[in-house]
Amino acid sequence: MDAAGARAVGALLAERLAAGWRPEQIRAAMSGRLPEDVGRMSSLVAARLRINVDPALAPAPASSAGAGAASARAAEDALWEARRRRSEALAAPVRRDEGPGEDPLWARARAEAQRSLPAGAGPMALARAAAGLMARWLADPAGAAV
User: Domain residues of the chain, as ranges?
Assistant: First the structure.
């Protein structure tokens, strides 16, 4: 980087730091792939700073540099923790025995399908056979009463 470009980039960085951007946030926003042909590195960095690290969009305002920055960081950490807990809750296995219970007609169809299938039939075959019985019974409700 030439001296003039380094001064321009330095001024842009100082402006963003004063606005509340933290160095690690700036690095994360700037870490993009370099284009094939770079004429002046300072122009590239300045353009990326203007586009990716807007002072108006700083995570913490400049006036909250001391205790305000710590509270903003704590709020951000709390938000990430809440997201992590929600993600884990969504990823947790669902227990089939919880809730209002199994439909009695489905339980009957599954039991009849189990009896009609050969020993060792897989769960997919059981589900298909039970679904076929359910479809037949729902098409002719009188047949389900038998």
Answer: 1-59, 64-92, 104-144
- The CA-based angle 93-95-100, given to 5 degrees, is 145
Q: How far is CA 88 from CA 40, 82, 93, 95, in A?
A: 46, 10, 10, 15
| Gap between the Cα atoms of 146 and 142, Å rounded | 7
Q: Return phi, psi of residue 59, to 5°.
A: -60, -35
Is the four-CA dihedral 11, 16, 17, 19 of positive or negative sign?
positive
Quickly state the pLDDT bin for 66 (edges 50, 70, 90).
low
Nearest to 107 by CA among 130, 89, 90: 130
**CA 9 distance to own-chain centroid:** 34
Q: Provide the 10 A C-beta neighbour count for residue 129.
A: 19
Gap between the Cα atoms of 82 and 55, Å rounded: 27
How far does CA 69 lie from the centroid of its chain?
26
Percent with pLDDT over 70 in the chain: 80
Q: Are 92 and 72 in contact (CB under 8 A)?
A: no
- Give the pair of three-digit tokens for residue 29: 């926003």
45 and 9 Cβ atoms separated by less than 8 Å: yes
